[in-house]
Amino acid sequence: xxxxxxxxxxxxxxxxxxxxxxxxxxxxxxxxxxxxxxxxxxxxxxxxxxxxxxxxxxxxxxxxxxxxxxxxxxxxxxxxxxxxxxxxxxxxxxxxxxxxxxxxxxxxxxxxxxxxxxxxxxxxxxxxxxxxxxxxxxxxxxxxxxxxxxxxxxxxxxxxxxxxxxxxxxxxxxxxxxxxxxxxxxxxxxxxxxxxxxxxxxxxxxxxxxxxxxxxxxxxxxxxxxxxxxxxxxxxxxxxxxxxxxxxxxxxxxxxxxxxxxxxxxxxxxxxxxxxxxxxx
Amino acid sequence: xxxxxxxxxxxxxxxxxxxxxxxxxxxxxxxxxxxxxxxxxxxxxxxxxxxxxxxxxxxxxxxxxxxxxxxxxxxxxxxxxxxxxxxxxxxxxxxxxxxxxxxxxxxxxxxxxxxxxxxxxxxxxxxxxxxxxxxxxxxxxxxxxxxxxxxxxxxxxxxxxxxxxxxxxxxxxxxxxxxxxxxxxxxxxxxxxxxxxxxxxxxxxxxxxxxxxxxxxxxxxxxxxxxxxxxxxxxxxxxxxxxxxxxxxxxxxxxxxxxxxxxxxxxxxxxxxxxxxxxxxxxxxxxxxxxxxxxxxxxxxxxxxxxxxxxxxxxxxxxx
Lengths: 281, 320
Ligand SMILES: Nc1ncnc2c1ncn2[C@@H]1O[C@H](COP(=O)(O)OP(=O)(O)OP(=O)(O)O)[C@@H](O)[C@H]1O
Ligand SMILES: [Mg+2]
What we know:
By secondary structure, chain A is an all-alpha fold. Chain A has twelve helices and two strands, in the order H-H-H-H-E-E-H-H-H-H-H-H-H-H. In chain B, 33% of the residues lie in helices and 28% in strands.
């Protein structure tokens, strides 16, 4: 549809609707729609930066000071690296996980709560694109915070990168997994308690026990076995492998788990949206 | 072409409330259609289903020939909705809300900006475009939602009580606005509890009560079904002689006011003649209630209106 002058007759643009259904126009419309969601999510992150960017920076700095500098010195080497070099990938990953998840859960639940999710529901955007848009927003914040934490880490230690591609793939996949997780949480949540429950009582313990601060080889046999049921272990390990070149678990298997999680969770989110769980009566 | 077509539309909410019990409705392209009914009748539920905010239990919906089951995206592109409750992000600016909504419909930014300027001017909100929406007055919020519903220039505009809580002046200008876009080709469906609004704007009407359509016709046809009207006559002073008007039902709330029921076979001339004979001087006269209102009350109370057939279904009578 061409740009109309503003004095044209309103409502007298019948061609516009039929046009949207042609394949090329549909693709263009979807691109615009997707970009709109992502830009809106990004502006939200920037608008409330005091809630989205500052807290993870403070937390990470404290971790680096306390565990890295104060305590880490007494721990000594871990697999040939200083303790700080060992936990830096874990801490970066932890902030990526928390923020990817947190962004989607609070933004999508906020949209449900404030009812403006209806703006998207009445629009012709397909469910998978809405999911993708929110996930992109979560990934954006996860990576942004991850990058900031990496920069902070560089103030405390030198970061060696063994396999850059592994680092990038691991952080990206992890971020997508948890953005999708946040989406599921937001879909089911009926009040604000339910969007803090999962991060506090499930996500945080799982992250702490997922080898952020230690190698599971330090654990007794049974605890190692239990740890291996924790998917976060595989993500942290793969990411750390990209930096240090050593891992607690098989990296190929890690990527298989992450990819599978992305596929399953994405399909689940789209299905929930199609069904209208939590969004439509 | 039918702008909207509902067939056997049913909705039972999870809590067991049967909000729609098989609704059939057709709205022609270009029509100005009123969907009326008492609180809880199922109007918003029907609109919610058409606009994909509520899942239907059964039945079919087509918007400009596009079924919402098989061609949902096409159906949605034809449709603009102004919901009953505020549903924009109260922390966003008006311009952000409109440009984003345009984006969700795939409209590129430059086009969206032009349209935003056009519609905000039409709705007298252009000066407020940089205002955070939360700080708008109630009437402005309604108009913002109208602008938002029109940003993709839909062929069918559905408004759920757009004039609720809006002052008289704004309401009149909203009417003018809606009339104008209807003349320019947009089909409009509107719900309202102000029946004079429906009477003055709409050409077709459907009345829905307890999830069923109990009346669906041209406005003029529906109004013709009204058998009796009650007129209120104001007199300059008390009557000097007693009034004799056999066959008319009459009450006198006070000395200078008369209420007369007039049915289709009767006429006003007789009343005026009798009043003159009684020495009465009529200074003004009005309908006791809006005609549509009178009809509406009779219908939803399940009383006989027209041909002697009960027009309301048993369910409506049971509740009356
Ligand atoms: N989300 C819901 N869950 C359960 N029941 C609902 C829900 N929304 C509406 N209902 C019920 O469905 C029926 C129809 O409601 P609806 O909102 O469609 O009426 P309405 O005609 O729009 O009324 P009003 O004029 O008051 O806006 C009512 O009995 C209402 O209580
Ligand atoms: Mg309603």
